[in-house]
Amino acid sequence: MTPADARPAVELSTSTAHILATAFTGLAEARSEVDLLNAVLVYLRPLGPFAADLLLTTEFADNVPTHARIVAHWSEAQPLEACPRDTDIDLGSHLSISRLWYDQSAPVLLEDIAADPRCDDGYRRHMAAIDVAAQAMLPLHSEAVGRVIGVVVLHFHAPRRFTSEEQYVLKTLSCGLASFLASRRLLAEREESLQQAERQRRMLQAVIENLPIGVYLAEAGTHKPLLANRIGVETLAQKRVEPDGKVYYEAYTIYRQGTTDPLPFTELPLYQTLSTGEPRSGVVDVVSKEGRGIVTLELSAAPVRDDGGTMFAAVVVYLDVTERNRLEAERTQIRDELIRTQAQALAERSTPLIPLGDDLVAMPLVGALDGPRADQIIEVLLAGCAARKARWAILDVTGVPHADTAVAGALLRAAAAVRLLGVEPILTGIRPDVARALVGLDVDLRGVVTLSTLQEGIHYAARTQGRGR
């Protein structure tokens, strides 16, 4: 660009250039919208308006501003002041003329509202009612935002012609004011974003600190600790960031669960997640630093990625399940003991030994017979016969639904066992299938009394007892 190209299209007078410089200095030093309007009023007041408003656009439809808010106002009758921010102006109904400036970067000059064809009758009547004969609208078009973010409106009591120099300066001021206003808006939005981010950080920190599980965050690549919450620190009785710079797998002694075998750090869920970028989980034993000895931790690790999908850290959450495992082991032991006791009681109820006299006992069998129950029958039968000094023992199989060689063999073993104690066995309730099974065993059944019913067995023992006397 040549020096000639850099010169403005309109030659400015020395006084105007000085005022313009003063206005831009004021814009640079402004701390509020009132200060911004005050800065440009250095040039605008001498033009003769009786009032000036700074409006900021607030709502849009199809990129056309539909609502605006007056944020600063000046008039001859009152000093410059900020305006309440709780009321928006409906541009479509109150200032339909705004459609002239919403997409403009140059000032819109209504030098004589009564004669300007761009103004409709309704607008003319409204302006006449408030004694406005001319207006200058300076659209605040921001390149950074990409649209008009506001407008400065100057109100004149009488028609007003604007010189080329005035039009040039008005355009320059509107561009400058838009730039500084946009900067303030972007800065305010950034500050609000930072405040929101800080609030979210504090909320997240509060949540993490009060979780009932340990949280540990490690940096990708270096594996260095970035964060550890209160529960995580208390679980392992370790500082939040190891003072010697050790990473997590160097700071703790870690074993495979339930053993004293050291676990290679490459098998830790957090290490694997940092290496592969995939979630991992596991259970380990860790030596606690607070005198608790070995604690068992359930671990679950997951990657932490940025918006581009790159993993920059990994987090592992861990839960101390030492006490839970101890309680579960106790419950399991109690449950197993209860099951054993119930099984024993059930077995005793399923193999009752009934005394029918001083030297006669009977055991009515009900239900299927298998190996364990056969052993239980023999055990109960031998103990009962010995305790009562019985001479006869009746085994009644009327309630046994099915009989095969296994059942027959169990009955013969029971009979042979009591015979060794000097007790005469009596089998009652033998059905044809039981008889076939006994014959099929091809054993000597001599010495084993077999009768059809329990009642006959009782009569047999009574008769035998009578003869013995």
From TrEMBL:
SUPFAM superfamilies in UniProt: GAF domain-like, PYP-like sensor domain (PAS domain), SpoIIaa-like
UniProt keyword Phosphoprotein present: yes
The protein's name in its UniProt record: GAF domain-containing protein
Organism per entry: Nannocystis pusilla
PANTHER family (UniProt xref): RSBT ANTAGONIST PROTEIN RSBS-RELATED, RSBT CO-ANTAGONIST PROTEIN RSBRC
Keyword list, A-Z: Phosphoprotein
Limits of the STAS domain: 350-461
InterPro entries assigned: Bact_StressResp_Reg (IPR051932), GAF (IPR003018), GAF-like_dom_sf (IPR029016), PAS-assoc_C (IPR000700), PAS-like_dom_sf (IPR035965), STAS_dom (IPR002645), STAS_dom_sf (IPR036513)
Domain of life of the native organism: Bacteria
The UniProt record lists the keyword Phosphoprotein: yes
Matches recorded under PROSITE patterns: PAC, STAS
Chain ranges of the PAC domain: 280-333
Gene3D superfamilies, per the entry: 3.30.450.40, PAS domain, STAS domain
